[in-house]
Design brief:
The complex is a heterodimer.
Chain A: E1 9-18, E2 25-35, E3 40-44, H1 51-58, E4 68-76, E5 79-80, H2 86-92, E6 97-100, H3 104-107, H4 114-126, H5 130-143, H6 149-152, H7 162-174, E7 180-184, H8 192-209, E8 212-217, H9 220-226, E9 229-234, E10 237-243, H10 244-249, H11 254-261, H12 264-270, E11 313-315, E12 318-320, H13 325-333
Parallel strand pairs in A: 3-8, 3-9, 6-7, 7-8
Antiparallel strand pairs in A: 1-2, 1-4, 4-5, 9-10, 10-12, 11-12
Helix pairs in contact in A: 4-5, 4-7, 5-7, 7-8
Chain B: E1 5-20, E2 27-41, E3 45-49, H1 56-63, E4 71-76, E5 79-80, H2 86-93, E6 96-99, H3 113-124, H4 129-142, H5 159-171, E7 177-181, H6 189-206, E8 209-214, H7 217-223, E9 226-231, E10 234-240, H8 241-246, H9 251-259, H10 265-270, H11 302-305, E11 310-312, E12 318-320, H12 336-340
Parallel strand pairs in B: 3-8, 3-9, 6-7, 7-8
Antiparallel strand pairs in B: 1-2, 1-4, 4-5, 9-10, 10-12, 11-12
Helix pairs in contact in B: 3-4, 3-5, 5-6
The chains are: A alpha/beta, B alpha/beta.
Chain lengths: 340, 348
């Protein structure tokens, strides 16, 4: 059923709405991107960009939260996930698709040992015996470099530090050898020295297993560290997508280039104050007309930027949603300086 | 520093009682801040950097006497803060303020912006109502918000706007010192630099001293000429921010800098990095000798036996590390040259 040349995950024109006092709001708007086999794709965006909801919708997790998918398709390994029955999609989640989330403590049950929790996933999805499932749980803990895995498997979540709990979560996610690992801000709650180790671990696991990773983050430093392909979201839409070196070497969207220029590390390197993006993040009940970034954009032009929805167009190796792409090419292309 | 410091902290210790070891057991103390000293001049910013458990936030709270000081001196100008009575403290409150990390929980949701900003004036300054109104309007404009926002409630604002309100509230009484505890780390990336630039502007106008508590050395370097790095309750390195950032002299500082990923994929692939093994030891029973030795990639025999001395570093500041007198005998030079010859990924 699966075609090994096709991407592992294909998201096409996916739209998601959630109810609000303003009526149904479109929080994911015709989002399309692929995750190839043996690939690491980062979706980057700020709060409200729709990056997490896109991922949740792709694996059938928005309906339980009151949301609805209004259009689009999500093909995973040859199967359509949108509209798939609960039983069927449950079999895929946790088995072929593993998850890790931001808060490892709230994702673990404090009343069971970590070994029991990992073994439970294996028994449920693989129908393994108790003894086999336990063995697999210990192996998984070993793969995430938890020292003396067989004795630590018998400990409870509170006996682990924050970084170690995130390792336990990763062990649980990879225990069934998933084809795709979805990681939603897995290092955001961790200290930077712990984050560095978790990123290193994810890279190693990906390399050794050949699984694909869909990584969701707000941090462009993390993106540069782990991604091979990057999807930038703003205002519920994809605004830019490109291979990682293209995106950082020559950002094509003023938002991407603005985010880079606002980073303290980049500002330090260039010897100026960070260049703030003015204004605040666009809200779903009041999307600006035309380009959703236009009220904050340094290059905004009345007319092309402010009337009508903009398409995502192909530029060089990537895609960009901007009315002024050709004009801005020489400016944004030279890394991320703003005009004097 | 030749000018009289605005804040002088000497040998500050903070301990928490953490209950007993069991039935009838002795009460135990957690030493959260251990022998910390620092000075900040009027109008200056000092960065205090560390990760969770380093004691950086606890130190900030103790300096403001929002928690008790176990021992040591804290002076704001000529006034003794650590030993101040309740009445003295009340008078001190208007001279020192705090901005917290999370502007979603630090602003009372049932008060309007005007009430939030007027409260310090009512409590501390006895300013007539009309004058309060115009002060609120002026302050809102100085933090980049419309004066008309005074009638709104916190929930009507974005995170960045709320942090502007929190900064406005802290500045209402023209304090001499403001402790900024991770003021931008809860904000969206695109608004973080707005707030950093605003803080710089406000300091330029007011001459207030800032203690900037943060985990990100690049933020600190942008904001403050000097920095102190904390690990497990102690200051391990101090110095001019540029020197500490480019030429760290303590292995923990070097690890902290290399752990923050740089937004350049090519550089991330080739970067020389230190991955720290192990976990932060429990502050209940810190390691003997050097507190960092259990995670240090360059640990030597002496590190478990003796606490490292403070060594003066070329280019300014100090580092508490045995590498300066033993092993490679760096003698106050930075770690950078020494690290170049080594594979630095530490095993678990």
């Amino acid at each position: 059923m699966s075609d090994n040349t096709a991407p592992l995950l294909e998201i096409r024109d996916l739209s998601v709405q959630f109810p609000s006092p303003h009526g149904w709001l479109t929080v994911v708007d015709k989002v399309s991107f692929n995750v190839g086999r043996n690939d690491i794709v980062c979706v980057v965006g700020e709060s409200g960009s729709g990056k997490s909801v896109t991922m949740q919708a792709a694996v059938g997790l928005v309906q339980p939260k009151g949301g609805r998918i209004t259009s689009g398709s999500v093909r995973f390994d040859g199967q359509e996930l949108v509209g798939m029955g609960n039983r069927q999609i449950n079999r895929i989640r946790g088995n072929d698709i593993g998850f890790i989330f931001q808060e490892p403590m709230s994702s673990l049950n404090p009343a069971y040992t970590v070994g029991e929790q990992i073994a439970e996933v294996v028994r449920r999805h693989r129908g393994a015996s108790r003894a086999d499932a336990w063995k697999r749980a210990v192996e998984a803990l070993d793969r995430v470099h938890i020292a003396s895995a067989s004795s630590r498997a018998a400990e409870y979540p509170h006996q682990f530090s924050g970084g170690m709990r995130q390792r336990v979560m990763i062990a649980m996610a990879i225990a069934c050898d998933p084809k795709l690992l979805i990681a939603d801000e897995p290092t955001t709650a961790l200290d930077v020295t712990i984050q560095a180790r978790i990123l290193e671990l994810l890279r190693e696991l990906q390399r050794d297993s050949g699984m694909s990773v869909l990584f969701i983050t707000h941090d462009l430093g993390v993106v540069a560290d782990i991604a091979r392909y990057v999807v930038v979201m703003y205002g519920a839409q994809v605004v830019e997508a490109a291979p990682v070196d293209d995106l950082f070497g020559a950002p094509r969207h003023p938002y991407t280039s603005g985010l880079l220029g606002a980073m303290p590390q980049v500002a330090l390197e260039r010897g100026h104050d960070p260049i703030a993006i003015p204004g605040t993040v666009a809200q779903a009940h009041a999307w600006p007309t035309g380009c959703r970034f236009n009220p904050r954009c340094l290059y905004r032009r009345e007319g092309p930027c402010t009337t009508g929805a903009l398409p995502l167009t192909s530029v060089d190796n990537g895609l960009v949603r901007c009315a002024l792409t050709e004009e801005l090419r020489p400016i944004l292309g030279r890394a991320t300086m703003v005009p004097a | 520093m030749s000018a009289k410091p605005c804040l002088r902290v000497e040998n500050l210790h903070v301990t928490y009682d953490v209950g007993s070891t069991g039935f009838m057991g002795a009460r135990r103390k957690l030493h959260a801040v251990n022998d910390v000293s620092m000075e900040i001049a009027a109008g200056e910013t000092l960065g205090l950097v560390g990760e969770s458990g380093s004691g950086k936030s606890t130190a900030g709270l103790a300096i403001l006497r929002l928690i008790d000081v176990a021992s040591g001196t804290v002076r704001l100008g000529e006034t003794d803060v650590a030993g101040a009575s309740r009445a003295e403290l009340r008078a001190l409150r208007k001279r020192m303020q705090m901005v917290f990390q999370d502007p979603y929980s630090s602003l009372n949701p049932s008060m309007t912006v005007a009430q939030l900003l007027e409260e310090p004036l009512v409590v501390h300054a006895d300013v007539p109502k009309d004058e309060r109104r115009s002060m609120v309007g002026r302050m809102l404009e100085s933090v980049g918000l419309h004066a008309g926002y005074a009638v709104r409630y916190p929930h009507e604002f974005s995170g960045g706007q709320r942090q502007r309100i929190a900064i406005a509230r802290a500045m209402m009484l023209h304090p001499e010192l403001v402790v900024l505890d991770e003021p931008v780390s809860a904000l969206d990336v695109s608004t973080q630099s707005q707030i950093l630039n605003l803080l710089k502007k406000i300091q330029g106008d007011s001459g207030t001293a800032f203690l900037l508590v943060a985990h990100d050395l690049s933020v600190v370097r942008l904001m403050s000429p000097r920095v102190a790095v904390m690990y497990l309750g102690e200051i391990v390195e101090t110095g001019p921010s540029g020197r500490v950032y480019d030429e760290p002299a303590h292995p923990y500082t070097a690890a902290l800098i290399s752990a923050v990923p740089f937004p350049d994929p090519e550089r991330q692939r080739t970067a020389h990095r230190i991955i720290l093994g192990g976990d932060l030891p429990s502050p209940m029973s810190p390691p003997s000798g050097c507190r960092f030795r259990t995670r240090c990639p360059f640990v030597m025999e002496i590190c478990s036996k003796e606490a490292p001395p403070k060594v003066a570093i070329e280019g300014g500041g100090m580092a508490s590390c045995h590498l300066h007198a033993h092993g490679p005998k760096l003698g106050g030079r930075s770690l950078v040259g020494f690290m170049k010859d080594r594979a630095l990924v530490t095993v678990e």
